Amino acid sequence: MQNKIKDEEYIAYYAKLLETGKATLTDIPRKFRTYDIYLAYIKRNPLDLNKIPEKYINQKMCDVATTKNPNAAKFVPNKFKTPEFYLRLIRSNPALMLDMPSGYQDEWFYSSAVLMHPKALDFIPERYQTYNICLDAVSAFGEALAYVPERHKTLALCSIAVGNNLKAEEFAPEKIKALPSWKSMIAAQAEKEKKNNETHEKKLREKQEKSDEFYEIYRNLF
Fold this sequence. Notes:
The chain is an all-alpha fold.
C-alpha cells in the first residue's frame, strides 16, 4: 500500500513537470508512464498524439489534443472521429469538414455545423446548401451571407443576416440593396447598432469609474 501511494506521488510529480514543459516524455521512467502521464504530455504536445501507445488513447485524450491544436485531428484514430468530435473542431477550423468520413455527410450534421462557425457554409457540398441551412447559418452569423448561394439570397434571408451583423450588407445582391424597403431597414439597423454601442460604452465607463473608486479606497487604506 505504501509503495502504491509513493508511485502515485511520483506520477503526479512527473505529470506536473510535463504539463509545465520542465520535462519531456523521455525523462519519465517507463514504469511511471501511465495514462495520466501520457495525458499530461499531450496537453503540452498535442501533435505527438501519434507517439502515444494505442492502448492509452481514448476519446478524452483525443479531445484534449485537438482542443490544444485542431491539426492533431489527423492523428486521431477513426473510432474516435464521431460527428460530435467534428462539430467541436469546426468551431476553430471549419476546413476540417473536408476530411470527414462520407458517412457523416448528411443534413443533420451540416445544419449543426453552420451554427458553429460563420465560414462552415463554405465547406458544405452544394447539394446540402439548402435554403433552410443557409437561413440557419445567417441566423447564427450574419457574415455567413458571404457564403450563401445567390439563388438563396432573398430579401428575408438578407434582412436576417444584416439584422445580426450590419457588415453583411456588402454580400447582399445589388437588386435587393436597391429596394426602398432595404434602405429603410439598413438605416434602422444602423441606428439600432449605434444605440447598442452607446449603451455598451456607457456600461464600460461606469465599470471603469467603479474600478477607479475601489482603487482609491484600497490605496487610502495603506
